[in-house]
Model the fold of this input.
Amino acid sequence: MTLLPSANLYAALSAAFPADRTAIAIETPEKNYTWNDIDTLSGQLATFLTGLNVPAGSRVAVQVEKSPVALMLYLATLRAGLVYLPLNTAYREAEVAYFIQDAEPAIVVCDPANQGWVSELANGVGAHVFTLNEAGQGTLTEASASCASDFVTVACPADTLAAILYTSGTTGRSKGAMLSHGNLLANAQVLKTAWGWRSDDVLLHMLPIFHVHGLFVGANGALLAGARMIWLPKFTADDALRYLPRATLMMGVPTYYVRLLAEPRFDKAVCASVRLFISGSAPLLAETFRAFEERTGQRILERYGMSETNMLTSNPYRAEDGQRLAGTVGRPLPGVGVRVVNDADAIVPVGSIGHVQVKGPNVFSGYWRMPEKTRQEFTADGWFRTGDLGRFGGENTPDDYLSIVGRSKDLIISGGFNVYPKEIEEVIDALPGVQESAVIGVPHADFGEAVVAVVVPRAGAHLDPAPLQAELKQRLANFKVPKQVHVVDTLPRNTMGKVQKNVLRTQFQG
Ligand code: AMP
Done:
């Protein structure tokens, strides 16, 4: 194996930094950071991490609020040849206990407010503990302040582990997806071309950085383009309205776009400088796509990916490559193989629903310390089973465009028939007075599972379950008609905008 320094992701990112390193790379409401600052701050932290003398490949578990320093810590971890392990800030003690026991990090960085219980957990695995708050202050910053900043990035082969992302794990144990420097670089390079990243781009970055979307798609993307980021701790419609007029790119989960559209101040003029709005991590409703186009004249580009693989498919960026279509996630990205198969792993015809399987340089090597689970999730010929159900082509959709119809674990089998929740949700969402819906299966003595719909009315609208159900009987085959309809104010969502169907199943079973 060759030990080219460029196989370290940071080496590739920093090689793309602009010639003028005194230019602003990261802008926050409080402070700006130049490209030089990124190099020296991440260098200083890398010197510090290296000085702890932990073995190469040690995990650095990080559960902190978003800040530029937190981004520097990610880069420092890459530079030092250690493994970055970000944790959702929503996780509480019992959840973090699992991750620490499973990953056995050598270094844990936490919010000062959690130092007490995190230290106890970290002591159990002999890890060093440091703190970092949302202002970039804490024992990590203090301890590294006097370290040298001229760190030489560690050379490593492309298959060296760079990060472990734990899946959200709504069923069973959360699994650590192992991503290499090569996986991350391959995807960042493909997206750079696919989305036409330029050095004069300005990315409005409002996503969390404990997840593939904000950390890899967003931050790696901007760094590899040598493009500026406006770095905000989280999404608010007010902030988006304030900063969009200076941005050229925005990435968001669908809820960001829904919330922007709820603002009468959000209009064409606000996004005049934005060349591309990108959505992912959860399905973008066709209605949001259309309302957005009507309001701004721009079509949101929807893409599809996951922690284990980074990005897999994307709607086209350039008009000459085709249209961005609502309800689809576009074509496989260059170099990424995507196939839709039946239960026997045989490819199904265009237009048919099946399991989505993928292959490519972006696809992870396996789940941390779960060889058996890893073996099950890859086919003998090396395709990763995503757990998503999808379809190529279909009505009014080109044959090479993929649509995701849901997670296979959300598929409902009622009376022996397959019921795809998305199909029913689309019918419900089109009814008057409906804002959105989620269709789930709950255990049923006769049918195995019964179809249940949870429906959110539009603001000011009133919905009654009985007439809604009667309406659905007119439009759907009997086995698809929800046996129960519940009207609720909102659907439970996680921070990435995904509807938590497991929560609904618990709530509405029986
Ligand atoms: P995560 O690993 O948290 O990024 O979750 C990945 C999952 O999110 C995928 O397997 C899909 O189920 C879902 N997902 C991501 N992007 C989309 C999209 N554009 N449309 C529908 N589902 C999506």
Q: What stands out?
A: The chain is about 30% helix and 25% strand. Residues 411-508 form a domain with the GMP Synthetase; Chain A, domain 3 fold (CATH 3.30.300.30). The CA atoms of residues 357 and 385 lie 5 Å apart. The radius of gyration is 23 Å.
